[in-house]
C-alpha cells in the first residue's frame, strides 16, 4: 500500500475521468525544490521572491537573484516555474528599505505599486529573470496586486524593455487575480496576459473587507464565500473566451473542498504547499469533472461559505 501511495503521488494531477489539473508547489527557495518534487510537484506555481529580501538585511543584488532563480529553474528540469515579482508592503515589511509607514498598508503601496515607485528594486529583478529565461524554457513571470489594466501594461512594458536589451526569448506573462477589480475586468486582462493565477488569500481579504491576519475574523475569512467563488468563476469564463489558463496559488487550492470547487469552476492548475500535494491529487482523482462542475454550479447559488462547504462530503458518500 505504501508503494501504491508513493506511485500515486507521482501521477500527473487529474480528475477520475482524466481531465488534467496540474498540481504544483508554492516554494520560495531552490533548496526546497527537491522536497517538492519528491512530494509529487509538477512544477512551481508560485515562487514568492520577497522571501529573498525578507531573509536578509540588505537588498539582494541582480546577480544574487539570478543565482536563486536559476537554481530553481535548474531543479525544475523543464517543468513550469512561475516567478512572482516582489510583493512587499501590506504585512510584509522589509526594514532596511526604509519605506514610509502607511495607515492602510494593505491598501497602499504594495506589490506592483511599490515596484513602480522603486525601479531600483524592480528593474534588477526583471533583469535577473530575463537572464535566467535565456537559458531555461518554461520560466513564467507573474505580477502581484494588479488592480487595473494599466498596471499590467506598465509592468509588461518594463519587462519587455529589459528582455529585449538582454536578448531573452519571450516569457509567458501572468497576473495574480487577488483584487476584486482585476476579477471584474478579467475579460480585458485576458486579452493581453498569458495566464492568471488567483490569489485567494488576498482576493478573500479584499472581497470581504476582512484583514487576512485578523485573529477575530480568521474564521469568517473563507475563500469558499460565494462572493469569492463568483469572482473566480468570472475570471475563468473570461480566460476561457481568450484561450488562456487559470491557476490558483492561494490557500484555497490546498484545501480539499477548495481544490474540488476550483477544479469544478474550471481552474486547471493548483499550486499548494508541499505537504498538501498528495492530498490534493487524491481528492481530484476521486471525482469526475462533470461531478465537480455540478458541485461548483451548486456552490455559486449558496448564500454562505458554510453552505458551500456542506456540499462536499468525503468521496464515496454520494452527494452532488
Ligand atoms: C494570495 O494572496 O492568495 C497569494 C497567493 O499571495 P500572498 O499569500 O503571497 O499574498
Ligand atoms: Mg497575495
**Are there runs of 5+ residues with pLDDT below 50, and where?**
316-320
As laid out across the biggest beta sheet, the strand order is 1-2-3-4-5-6-7-8
- Total number of helical segments? 15
Q: List SSEs in N-to-C order.
A: HEHEHHEHHEHEHHEHHEHEHHH
* Strand coverage percent: 5-15%
Largest sheet: 8 strands, parallel, barrel
The average pLDDT score comes to 95
Bound molecules: phosphoenolpyruvate, magnesium ion
Rg, alpha carbons? 19 Å
Structural class call reads alpha/beta
Helicity, as a percent range: 40-55%
In short:
Belongs to the PEP-utilizing enzyme family. With 320 residues, the chain is an alpha/beta fold.
Description:
The protein has helices at 2-10, 33-38, 50-54, 62-76, 112-117, 119-133, 149-166, 180-184, 186-190, 200-208, 226-241, 256-265, 277-285, 289-300, 305-310; strands at residues 22-26, 44-48, 81-84, 139-143, 173-177, 195-198, 245-248, 269-272. The longest helix is centred in the middle third of the chain and has 18 residues, at 149-166. The model is unreliable at 316-320 (pLDDT under 50). The radius of gyration is 19 Å and the shape is globular. Helix 7 links the parallel strand 4 (139-143) and strand 5. The protein contains 15 helices and eight strands. It has an eight-stranded parallel beta barrel with strand order 1-2-3-4-5-6-7-8, surrounded by six helices. With 320 residues, it is α/β, with parallel strands linked by helices. The relative contact order is 0.13. The structure holds phosphoenolpyruvate (PEP) and magnesium ion (MG). Magnesium ion binds next to helix 10. The site of phosphoenolpyruvate has 10 residues, from strand 2 and helix 10.
Amino acid at each position: 500500500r505504501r508503494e501504491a501511495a508513493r506511485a500515486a503521488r507521482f501521477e500527473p494531477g487529474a480528475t477520475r475521468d482524466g481531465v488534467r489539473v496540474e498540481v504544483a508547489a508554492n516554494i520560495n527557495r531552490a533548496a526546497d525544490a527537491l522536497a517538492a518534487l519528491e512530494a509529487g510537484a509538477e512544477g512551481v506555481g508560485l515562487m514568492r521572491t520577497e522571501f529573498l529580501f525578507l531573509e536578509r538585511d540588505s537588498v539582494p543584488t541582480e546577480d544574487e537573484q539570478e543565482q536563486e532563480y536559476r537554481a530553481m529553474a535548474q531543479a525544475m528540469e523543464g517543468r513550469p516555474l512561475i516567478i512572482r515579482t516582489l510583493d512587499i508592503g501590506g504585512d510584509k515589511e522589509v526594514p532596511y528599505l526604509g519605506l514610509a509607514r502607511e495607515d492602510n498598508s494593505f491598501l497602499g503601496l504594495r506589490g506592483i505599486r511599490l515596484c513602480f515607485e522603486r525601479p531600483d528594486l524592480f528593474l534588477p529583478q526583471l533583469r535577473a529573470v530575463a537572464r535566467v529565461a535565456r537559458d531555461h524554457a518554461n520560466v513564467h513571470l507573474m505580477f502581484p496586486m494588479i488592480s487595473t489594466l494599466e498596471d499590467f501594461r506598465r509592468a509588461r512594458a518594463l519587462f519587455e524593455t529589459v528582455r529585449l536589451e538582454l536578448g531573452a526569448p519571450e516569457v509567458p506573462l501572468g497576473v495574480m487575480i487577488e483584487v476584486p477589480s482585476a476579477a471584474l475586468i478579467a475579460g480585458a486582462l485576458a486579452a493581453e496576459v498569458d495566464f492568471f493565477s488567483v490569489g485567494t488569500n488576498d482576493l478573500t481579504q479584499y472581497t470581504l473587507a476582512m484583514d487576512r491576519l485578523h485573529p477575530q475574523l480568521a474564521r469568517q475569512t473563507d475563500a469558499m464565500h460565494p462572493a469569492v467563488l463568483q469572482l473566480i468563476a468570472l475570471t475563468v469564463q473570461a480566460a476561457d473566451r481568450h484561450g488562456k489558463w487559470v491557476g490558483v496559488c492561494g490557500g484555497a487550492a490546498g484545501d480539499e473542498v477548495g481544490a474540488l470547487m476550483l477544479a469544478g469552476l474550471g481552474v486547471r492548475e493548483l499550486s499548494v504547499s508541499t505537504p498538501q500535494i498528495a492530498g490534493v491529487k487524491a481528492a481530484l482523482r476521486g471525482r469526475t469533472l462533470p461531478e465537480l462542475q455540478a458541485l461548483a454550479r451548486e456552490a455559486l447559488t449558496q448564500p454562505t461559505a458554510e453552505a458551500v462547504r456542506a456540499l462536499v462530503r468525503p468521496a464515496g458518500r454520494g452527494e452532488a
